[in-house]
Amino acid sequence: GGASIYIPELDKSITSNALGFFRFNNVPTGSYELVYRLGDYLEGRENITVTPGSISMRSFGDYETSEKSYNYTVQPEITGQKAVLPSNEAVKKTTKSGKKKPAATKKSSSGYGKIKLVANVEGAKFVVDSKTLGAGNNTYTRIKSGKRKIQVSKPGYTEYTEIVTVSKNKTKTVKANLSRKVTDSDETLTANDYFILGNDAFAAKKYESAINEYTRAIELSPNHIDAYSKRAQAYAAIGHNEKSASDYIRIGEIYSFRNQNGLAISQFTSALKYSPDNKTALVGRAGARMDKGEYRSALIDYTSALEIDDRFYPARFGAGIAEFKLGDNKSAEKHFKKAKKINDSDPKLYHYLMLNYLDSDNIKQVKKTYGQFKNVVRPDELAEFKSSSRFAPIIRLIDEDDL
């Protein structure tokens, strides 16, 4: 049979396949101790750190003769999966009686101890004697006893260094307090680095600092949705509701641009919780609802925005489009005419005016509006209009001399 591998913290276990490989799926991010056993005598331990979106690999071979320290039921042997951890083939030797014979191993006279890391920030890299053991607060095992140099680091923080004494079969607790660097001139931080720094500050309820970190993340990555979302929460935590609403609106706009209209609607709705009379949020949500074909709900939002500001062009024009989609040509015409008084240079307004008149069989107004349209658009916009199949019925109604 293969080696048995166990993660005590998660109570997960598995058996390697015939080639000595195994794979754990759906392991949460973090650092863990792995216990691996061959037969009844050979056991080893290693630390491993699991990071998002990647496969963490570890090879084993440093076994010691020991008594079982965990009781667990091993899952069935796996086959056909990507290699992750090879087992030691040396233990396949057997005695004449057929019983497994422990492989010869060199045991350190100094023994091993453990170090429990307690850092004030999450995800800090933990290094012992220049060897990276993992990241995050965890108890790290199989550390040789004696004096050891400890380094705890994370981008944007000053490194914590300490010389500690590890005792055999004992656990040494290291409390590492990392402080934010005054300047980042000595290292290049990414948008995600700043986002993580913001999360650290947010977790410590240092909301002003968190806002500064999230802002720097956004400066480097203007469409960083998570940074906008967390900054919005930080603004709300200190009572800056309008700024919080602005960030939710920005997220909604990003989702709308990506045609993720359901997500966009939820973000505009969040903005309205902090700024109920925000006409931009209302129009943004209305636009997302229009893209989903929810014209009645969109019209309600446009109307609410017009109650706040009846000369808000996006709301007036949008209300006209919603009425047109709902088949109310008279109401649509009223909105389009009012929108024209606010902004008479928007080509799209003339598009919808002509389509609305065409739908009402008002050919005279179609031609009249086309004449006005020609005077406000650039030559390339006019050429695009003429070549569009959408407007072909209108072009056929226009006299050749007027084209």
Question: What is the strand and helix layout of this fold?
Answer:
Elements: E1 4-7, E2 12-15, E3 30-38, E4 42-50, E5 64-65, E6 112-119, E7 125-128, E8 131-135, E9 139-144, E10 146-153, E11 160-166, E12 171-176, H1 191-203, H2 207-220, H3 225-237, H4 241-257, H5 261-274, H6 279-291, H7 295-308, H8 313-325, H9 329-342, H10 347-359, H11 363-376, H12 379-387, H13 392-397
Parallel strand pairs: 6-12
Antiparallel strand pairs: 1-2, 1-3, 3-4, 4-5, 6-9, 7-8, 7-10, 10-11
Helix pairs in contact: 1-2, 1-3, 2-3, 3-4, 4-5, 4-6, 5-6, 6-7, 6-8, 7-8, 8-9, 9-10, 10-11
Description of the molecule:
The chain is α+β, with helices and mostly antiparallel strands. The chain has three domains: 4-92, no CATH class; 112-176, Immunoglobulin-like (Sandwich); 191-402, Tetratricopeptide repeat domain (Serine Threonine Protein Phosphatase 5, Tetratricopeptide repeat, Alpha Horseshoe), CATH 1.25.40.10. It contains 13 helices and twelve strands. The strands form three sheets. Strands 2-1-3-4-5 form a five-stranded antiparallel sheet, with no helix packed on it. Strands 8-7-10-11 form a four-stranded antiparallel sheet, with no helix packed on it. A hairpin with a 6-residue loop joins strand 10 and strand 11 (160-166). Helix 8 (313-325) runs antiparallel to helix 9 (329-342). The termini are far apart.
